[in-house]
Amino acid sequence: MLTALLSILSLSVRAEPQKPNIVLLFSDDAGYSDFSFQKAVNNNNFLTPNIDNLASQGVRFSQAYVTAAVCGPSRAGLITGKYQQKFGFEENNVPGYMSKSGLDYDDMGLPLNQITLADRLKALGYRTAIFGKWHLGDAERYHPLKRGFDEFIGFRTGSRSYFEYDDKKLPQVPQNEKLEYGFGDYREPKQYMTDFLAEEANQFIERNKDTPFFAFVSFNAVHTPMEAHPDDLAKIKGLSGKRKELAAMTIALDRAVGKILKKLTQLGLDENTIVVYTNDNGGPSDTNASVNFPLSGTKANHLEGGIRVPFIIRWPTKIKGDSSYSHPISTLDLLPTFVTAAGGKISTEDDLDGVNLLPYLNNQTTEVPHPTLFWKKEVRAAVRDGDWKLLRYPDRPAELYNIKLDESELNNLAHKYPEKVRELYKKIFEWELTLERPLWQLKREYEGKAMERMDAYRPAAINVM
């Protein structure tokens, strides 16, 4: 009798679906075409075999968007599944660039009333960790360990050196740039930062191989400062200056991704682990020599090069690999996709703007995930509605493009279709009525730079070799 009961219980345990592990690989300021899987021109020496391998095993998205063209707001949208303007996180939280009329720097963080992706997964029984860049508030109350993460090894601000700060330099380094283990334990890495973050992520995966885990690997690569490892720099031929540094830093990024993917395979976890690779915004071509070809624009503006990013998702047991998806998606979609895959429920009361991507990837629906997407930063705004995209500026007429026919945004159609311009203006206005006022604002001189057209980085003018 006891044997039969144990047998039934055993069958019951085996029948229960196993929650997938989740690994989010998130790079910083990478150019749209600076990966060989993107198959773009002008990316000589940007060979990324490990990310390419992930792309060949998963789904490649040709129209994946972030929610903002700069780091902090983009991350706020991703981690909440909501347009970050709904809760006032519209600007980058960068000390020195803030208006005196705004909040003090310590008050600039992800509002505490917002539920994060880590909060939701932790409630579903996941062990959660973030490695690397945080950039959602430096003050103690915004700390990752208070926002749903069980573990944190990284830095609170938006960038730092890739190398160890020595004892002479360390006293001059702002506290938020120092490498932090958990809360308040500051120790400098002995490895190149990109490799270090991969090693720490792998140790977390090893420790939690028998329980569902969420690892958010938030690389600072390839954000400035331009600091490549000498061994990687020696591998780059035919390039010079920032472009050479960037190519070498990209080698390290790809190597780090490869280490994490290899660890999942070694532990037998790869089949039931959702792995996503994407980037936080378009490449800042003026500061790190990244290339967003064939897209116009760059980080900090709403042209495609500022908001469209490489995006891959792999989940072998649930999603068909070596495939592509061409409809617009958003990093807003990561939260509802991950939570649903983990067995959680998303309700209308959650007020999310992202959608669960799984039905779209598994052909369970013929609808598109996002008929309309929005972007806004102060008075600048953009809307993607079907194939049409309108860009609203404070200092010149709006621009209208058909993205399906003109993804490089070279042919402004605003004069030809004034009714479409008015229609899309109205959509922006209606969306703006649902938003909060920005909690802080940039100084005007900094915002002015961000509003530049960046015509030098249009496809016809690219000269990076």
TrEMBL record:
Instruction: Recite the UniProt keywords alphabetically.
Output: Calcium, Hydrolase, Metal-binding
Q: By its UniProt entry, which Pfam families does this protein fall under?
A: Sulfatase
Q: Does the keyword Calcium apply?
A: yes
- What protein name applies here? Sulfatase
Q: What family does the database annotate?
A: Belongs to the sulfatase family.
* UniProt superkingdom: Bacteria
Q: Which InterPro entries match?
A: Alkaline_phosphatase_core_sf, Sulfatase, Sulfatase_CS, Sulfatase_N
Q: Which PROSITE patterns match?
A: SULFATASE_1
Span-the-membrane segments of this chain are none
Sulfatase N-terminal domain ranges (all copies)? 20-343
